[in-house]
């Protein structure tokens, strides 16, 4: 299998479990998150995947997810590039707050707007549009050239950095991508043409 790109949202983190806005904060995986990453690795191994290059964000939960996947694949020495361009959306003043606390402070309507609009950021933070503005240049200059050259590439990142990639790859509208859920620890396998278009996409689930 060549020209394959696999995107994996990190396993559940401690702050996911506590329903906190995480962003660029750096909590570790929960036991469930570890299990999700291990399962992702086993699913990829069962399908015969072997990777030539890995990319991940600068944050622990994505790094550890990739490490656990590679342990299952027996590819602990895979060349891996870590870059904050793949970091989660920065939630600014929402970071570290419970979602209920945020609603009390700013009101339901504003918090929903920040969470579900494409281009309206929370105070001091990023919108999905802002996130895409750093993710996509990195994809086009670092990730896509590797895939185009025939390499199989795995990317472990975050809900919104992966949404930015999905929106670009699948040519989705702003509304369509906001309605798209990205589950933790589920590998999304893309086979791309030489022009970067999606030839096939599937999720690996147990």
TrEMBL record:
Q: What is this protein called?
A: 2,3-bisphosphoglycerate-dependent phosphoglycerate mutase
Residue ranges of coiled coil: none
Q: Which GO terms describe its biological process?
A: gluconeogenesis; glycolytic process
EC number(s) per entry: 5.4.2.11
In its keyword annotation, does this UniProt entry include Isomerase?
Answer: yes
Subunit organization: Homodimer.
Name a GO molecular-function annotation.
Answer: phosphoglycerate mutase activity
NCBIfam families named among the record's database cross-references: pgm_1, PRK01295.1
Return the broad EC class: isomerase
């Amino acid at each position: 299998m060549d020209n394959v790109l696999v995107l994996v949202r990190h396993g559940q983190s401690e702050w996911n479990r506590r329903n906190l806005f995480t962003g660029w904060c750096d909590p570790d995986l929960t036991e469930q998150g570890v299990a999700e990453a291990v399962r992702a690795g086993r699913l990829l191994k069962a399908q015969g995947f072997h990777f030539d290059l890995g990319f991940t964000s600068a944050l622990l939960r994505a790094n550890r997810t990739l490490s656990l996947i590679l342990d299952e694949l027996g590819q602990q020495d895979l060349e891996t590039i870590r870059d904050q361009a793949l970091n989660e959306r920065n939630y600014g003043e929402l970071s570290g707050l419970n979602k209920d606390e945020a609603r009390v402070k700013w009101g339901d309507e504003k918090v929903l707007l920040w969470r579900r609009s494409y281009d309206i950021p929370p105070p001091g933070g990023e919108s999905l549009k802002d996130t895409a503005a750093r993710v996509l240049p990195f994809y086009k200059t670092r990730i896509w050239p590797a895939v185009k050259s025939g390499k199989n590439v795995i990317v472990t990142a975050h809900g919104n950095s992966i949404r930015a990639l999905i929106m670009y790859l699948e040519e989705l509208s702003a509304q369509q991508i906001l309605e798209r859920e990205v589950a933790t620890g589920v590998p999304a396998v893309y086979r791309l043409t030489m022009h970067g278009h999606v030839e096939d996409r599937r999720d690996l689930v147990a």
